[in-house]
Amino acid sequence: MKYTIKKCITLFISLFFASILTFTAFHIIPGDSALSALGMDATEEQLEEYREIMGLNKSFPERYADWLKNALKGDFGYSSQYQMRMRVSTLIKERLIVTLWLAVLSFMLIVLVSIPLGILSARKKNGILDSLISLVTQVFMSIPSFFLGMLITLIFGVILKWFTPGGYVSPGENFGLSLRFMVFPAIAVAIPKIAMMVKFLRSSLLGEMELDYVRTAKSKGMKNISILFKHILKNALIPVITFLAMMLADILAGTILVEQVFNLPGLGRLLVSSIANRDYAVVQAIILYIVSVVIIINFLVDLIYQWIDPRVRRN
Amino acid sequence: MHTKKLAKVLLLIAVFTIALYGCSGNKDGTGSNTPANDDRSLTEPTEAAKSEPTYGGSVTVGITQELDGLDPHKAISAGTKEVLFNIFEGLVKFDPDGNLNPAVAESYQISSDGMVYTFTLREGVKFHDGSPVTAEDVVYSVKRSAGMLEPKDPTVAVDSALSVISDVVAADERTIEIRLKRVDTELLPYLTCAIVPKDYGELDTKPIGTGPFKFVSYTPLQSIVLEKNSEYYIEGVPYLDRVTFKISSNTDAAFMELQAGAIDILPYITDAQASQLPKGYHMESGPMNLIQGLFINNKVTPFDNKLVRQALCYAVDRQAVIDMVAGGRGNVIGTNMYPGFKKYYDESLVNVYPYDPEKARELLKEAGYPDGFKFTITVPSNYQYHIDTAQVIVEQLKQVGITAQIQLVEWSNWRSDVYKGRNYETTLVGLAADPAPRKALARFCSTAENNFMNYFNPDFDAIFKQGEAETEEEKKIELYKQMQAMLTNDAVAVYIQDPHQMTAVSDKLGGYTYYPIYVQDMSLVYYKK
């Protein structure tokens, strides 16, 4: 319980610092959201009026305090890149669904593909299959997702026409079609991560196999396969869970490039266009989301650890 | 005991997956657009197409800029205005030749002293919701565009050109009088400002206009969908039933979609893309009416010396730039005027600075820089075209011993540092056309806020004042040409070209038309028989 409270406090402190950092960063970089909103040829008078109304004239600490006060109430204000007074929360909510949908699909792919492959690779250690898997994973690990994305769009979208590049339908509207559009970006996100995961799982399994308890089990006369599934796997999975969780955080926060490549209307694209337009409110909210995701997932991993392995708590 | 732990681990993975999976199931009905290639079934145009228009069908146009709003009086980005052109109309409207035709108004008269414009409403013009356009709506719309409504809405982008209006009144049900503070012969092009229903509160989200297309839906970062306005007052227009403007994150992504057949029309393609068009598409091109130039800060050394600026002009081979960057598609220009205003534009100024590196070197020597000098060209990083141009110019300047360095800046920084802050040496960009020629020259007045080239010339100011007040067209043109010549002779900038805009168009489509202003007019586009 104490542990949980401690972690919660860390979470809030981290969020606080992250928000100050983004706010400061925006304060330092050049660019003017009033100019973005009113156009290049707006007169100084018009700009001044806009700044006054949007509260851009206030001092830096004052603006931060204002923002924080509203953010704590769940009000992130209005986006400045759209003229239609669009609420930041609405804007983000719509984009978040796209990003989450992509993250879930790719995460499922990672889990479903990498765990069997990793086990297979470890069991057939140094066999042909293992060498082949090693080779393939080595190659895919070194290809970044966005480049894979381009290749996939070219091959499956342009040449084979299995999907329409840039197409997106929300899953609520037409699940099948949505899946068809989303599977390819998900593959692009998943492949390098699957490769990493397979390698990681393999070495983790092999490490466990050398330990004394495996020898004991063997001398008891257990079959190799049941030693693997009954004893080795669950011990080997503990570090794997951390790794998976880190990946999940990475996917949830980092599909920006892939979204650009596949033209998905997700958070990543919103973030890029918001930075370009100096849309403070939106950037601030997205950064908070990313930071929260990373911290909360780490926090959950810590909790899970304790549950699986009570030794952690004692230490 | 141990099996339990393993079960826990696996259970956790499962819970993780399911929990997150559940999150994605939110059915807010967001993202309510469909890929447009599904509803293209209406027409089956054949290859052996004669250019005979048919009615119906739907078209997807690729755009690479997010819309900044749907309210025509608030939107400022050119990328938004060119889409909204299909939904809204003003009292008058531009045609593809750059002439102003009556639109919501049927006719207009200008009083002999030039102080009162009287518009007569067209009979039977309706808004998209079916209500007739009244004189009250027009008064409201013009006042709103001119920032004359109280209380003021700071998000309405007021065009300073409309500030000359003193009052707008409805004389009777079909007559509107626009009264001016002083004579202004260049007001009419700005009366293309959109006519919207009076006190309609949902312009931001459900815009209603009088144009050839009605607004259907808009999803940020995805698309805006329009459908045919079957009650449009011009008989036989538009041809298409539905137009989707699909928003892509960048030109490369949009071009990929075009290659996959998901986009029918893609404007602003690059030279490289034009040469890679897939089967079933062709390229159309026309002048952009853009002033592309190497703009110089006339106040910083060494550019405060006219000889240095002139040397730059002689050292740049403009035709070679066009050939290298755009495959020869572009027209060399010599001064700060949009070539689309044919009457006002002085074409002879193109020949003032022919490519002459010898002369450039001489001028440099005379100015005290026999060994050349170093300077930076600031270019906004999102405009590949300008970056390419700058690269060619850097090479050309090496020939005369000048070392130029390209500095890429973000567009937002460019606006605040270069354009507003005037903190730069030279910059390579394009100045987009305005509805009236005066704006091209107004920025060179000493007191102009957008005089980012820091040009100060009392003679110019005097002639500008004279030209502004002049009501006789012949004399006005004469004065405008004088100012253009002044700018060229003072070498305020290295004027390069009016680039051509290249658009990829599906072979099934006809009627894609270029305008001297930034618009994507879909009302004339049709499927060929």
Q: What does this protein structure show overall?
A:
The complex is a heterodimer of chains A (315) and B (529). Chain A contains 14 helices and no strands. Chain A has 315 residues and is mostly helical. In chain A, helix 5 runs antiparallel to helix 10 and helix 11 (256-262) packs across helix 12 (267-276). The longest helix of chain A has 36 residues, at 88-123. The mean pLDDT of chain A is 84. Chain B has 529 residues and is of the alpha+beta class. Chain B contains 13 helices and 21 strands. In chain B, the strands form five sheets. In chain B, strands 12, 13, 14, 15, 16, 17, 18 and 19 form an eight-stranded mixed beta sheet that branches. A four-stranded mixed beta sheet of chain B has the order 2-11-10-9. Chain B is globular. The termini of chain B are far apart. Chains A and B meet through helix 2, helix 3, helix 5, helix 7 and helix 10 of A and helix 1, helix 4 and helix 10 of B.
Secondary structure blueprint with pairings:
The complex is a heterodimer of chains A (315) and B (529).
Chain A: H1 2-28, H2 33-38, H3 44-54, H4 60-72, H5 88-123, H6 128-141, H7 145-159, H8 175-209, H9 212-219, H10 224-253, H11 256-262, H12 267-276, H13 280-308, H14 311-314
Chain B: H1 2-23, E1 53-54, E2 58-63, H2 78-84, E3 92-94, E4 100-102, E5 105-110, E6 116-121, H3 135-145, E7 165-172, E8 175-180, E9 213-219, E10 223-228, E11 242-247, H4 251-259, E12 265-266, H5 271-274, E13 281-287, E14 290-296, H6 306-315, H7 318-326, E15 330-332, H8 357-367, E16 374-380, H9 384-398, E17 403-409, H10 411-420, E18 426-432, H11 438-442, H12 458-469, H13 473-489, E19 493-506, E20 509-510, E21 526-528
Parallel strand pairs in B: 2-11, 16-17, 16-18
Antiparallel strand pairs in B: 1-21, 3-4, 5-6, 6-8, 7-8, 9-10, 10-11, 12-19, 13-19, 14-18, 14-19, 15-19, 20-21
Helix pairs in contact in B: 6-8, 7-9, 12-13
